[in-house]
Amino acid sequence: IKADFDEAITKVQSKDELEQLRINYLGKKGIVTELLKGLKNLDAAEKKVAGKEVNLVKNSIEEALITNGKRIEEEALLNSIASAEKFDYSIPSKLNTGSLHPITIIQRQIEDIFKSMGFIIEDGLEVQTEYNNFEAVNIPKHHPARDMQDTYYLENGQLLKTHTSAAQNAIMKKYGAPKPGETLKVLFPGRCFRNENIDACHENTFFQMEGMMIGENISISNLIYFMKVLLSEVFQRDVKVRLRPGFFPFVEPGFELDVNCLICGGEGCSTCKQSGWLELLPCGMIHPNVLEMGGIDSDKYTGFAFGLGLTRLAMMKYEIKDIRVFNSANLKALKQFSKK
Ligand code: FA5
Asked: Does the keyword ATP-binding apply (predicted)?
């Protein structure tokens, strides 16, 4: 009897089957119950021996019913978890939701400002030819200005773009000179790479945002107007800036527009290398050679360009003291700006 029972119980898969097995053996008319009932027909000596045997079987069946009951419950639980994981997408998630990177937030904000002023947004390639990155912006081979931007060259002779200006030539060729009375206004953000010594305000990977406006009568006053709008819209408060002459082969005249360091209020700190100022927005009037290489008649057209240090702007806007936070995986630091 015990051997039959042991075989049967290994096949049991559900609570109902287990209950049926219990009834078959221990129920009112169960096999073991009938045996117990039959004991009364035996004489005293036989009853003693057989009674002991039957009770042992009965106890071991009861024990097996309990342990198998637990096994079946556990299996049912595991199955329900597994099937929920596979199929039930409606169970609310306890995972944290993502957030926008502070650079993305500020990039989109500036794109919106410039779009509202009629600018087109373009995307530049990260891997560029030497021609686009240097020659086309008036930095010929062996020109000392190439040393200003320590470049990562690829094995195939191309390079990782060192500045967003690398897209100027392709954009001029794509749109051509504007129609009479119109202007070409383009904004092109992008990631740049330089083999820099890294410190609180220099990374080897950082973002710039370049802007360009070309037309028949574009002058420095247009340039200054757009720079002022940009800064007042982004900071929503007065920030001290200074304009000084700056040299870039692709502009003439060229300027450096520095912003008073908002981390220390201009007092001097490690972010601004104790100077109180941060180089943020170099700009100038597009050099005639650059217009010509882009297929635009430099006798007829003029234009301005600026190369905003987007990562540095985000530092000032969100008062982030160290540029390395942006490329870190420190989500606690990076997530907090989403709601600002
Ligand atoms: C340029 O890259 C020029 N192409 C900008 C330009 C465009 C000038 C159009 C005139 C007309 P510069 O190397 O200074 O210039 O870089 C521009 C800005 O990018 C800097 O002011 C700074 O804010 C930011 N920048 C430069 N190097 C780094 C770096 N390693 N880490 C973080 N930001 C940087």
From this structure: yes
